[in-house]
Amino acid sequence: MIDLRSDTVTKPTPEMLKFMTEAEVGDDVFASDPTVNAFEKKMAEMFGMEAGLFVPSGTMSNQLCVAVLTQPGDEIIIDDLGHIFNYESGAAAHLSSVQIRPIKGERGKINREQAESAIRTYNDWDPHTRVIAVENTTNKGGGACYTKEELIELSNLADEHGLYFHLDGARIWNAMTATGIDPEFFGSVADTISICFSKGLGAPVGSMMLASKDHIKKARRLRKMWGGGMRQVGLLAAAADYAVENHFPLMTKDHQRAKQLAEAVSENPKFRIDLNTVESNIVIFDTVDEAAVDVLKEFEEKGVVMIPFGPKTIRATFHFQVDDQDLKKVLDVVRNY
User: What is the pTM of this model?
Assistant: First the structure.
């Protein structure tokens, strides 16, 4: 079965597993696991931030960032397709007692004008705007990427209004591959960053919060409070480190294969797609007449799985464990539907 449901479906390679078993480990609750300590330092330096905190998931990383940047009654501005708003179980309200103000952007991206129009006044009866949050690349937006200029404008806006700027970088590696932006740039514009290792990079577990030392100190205690304190976590940090060094360069191929699928979709009159929307490893397209679930059932019978992303919308997500031979089969299934 060729699995294009998500880039989270990858399995550890033999080389990754070997690297994991050779990792030197300790107890990270006591901050004495040398592998995770070194990896946190490595990622912080790569992205131009002071410190990092390895956590089990991107949701925990995002929510730790929300928690250290806000006070109860505050508000976060985010695109209405954003992960924090749609896919984190209402955690911002439950864990930090803040509300989210979703605004309509373009393919999951917001611009300065849209964000500025959502900033509140500071009356006693207002929720206080505290954070502008963006996602790069956008999941529900089909892998759209922010440009340097767009991020600088939003960061400047946050500074002008005394707000924080959070970057949800669940697929930041894809964004860097697509745009050529160096990682340290993101640290120059964001107050907090969440990066993920278990999507296109192919690690089995793990994300990291990047921020100032003070924010990481506070987040470390919250991580423990929320059940995220881990012991010999160097095993997982080693997998993430291996993925960064060995799988990050493979993303260029993922993006090329996504564009090839998009071309095949565009050639079939039973589907609709805007080829300009395929910037990274995600392909989102619509069916013309049939329900997405019906189309996907037939795809699965032919050995290809994707996911419904709406009544007549389908998402396919590429990763390094879908090779050129797999792609050939996927293209045949789509063209001959």
Answer: 0.95
Q: Is the domain of 178 the same as that of 254?
A: no
Per DSSP (E only), the strands in the chain are 2-3, 51-55, 74-79, 99-103, 128-135, 164-169, 192-196, 207-211, 271-272, 282-287, 304-305, 307-310, 313-317
Number of domains in the chain: 2
pLDDT digits (tens, 9 = 90+) for 238-287: 999 999 999 999 999 999 999 999 999 999 999 999 999 999 999 999 99
Neighbours of 196 (CB within 10 A): 26
Q: What is the pLDDT of residues 20-78, one digit of tens each?
A: 999 999 999 999 999 999 999 999 999 999 999 999 999 999 999 999 999 999 999 99
Helix axes 58-69, 213-225, angle to 10 degrees: 120
CA-CA distance, 137 to 337, in Å (whole number)? Answer: 30
The residue range of the domain holding 304 is 250-335
Strands, E assignment, 144-188: 164-169
Q: CATH code at 138?
A: 3.40.640.10
Task: Give me the sheet containing 307-310, strands edge to edge.
Answer: 271-272, 282-287, 313-317, 307-310
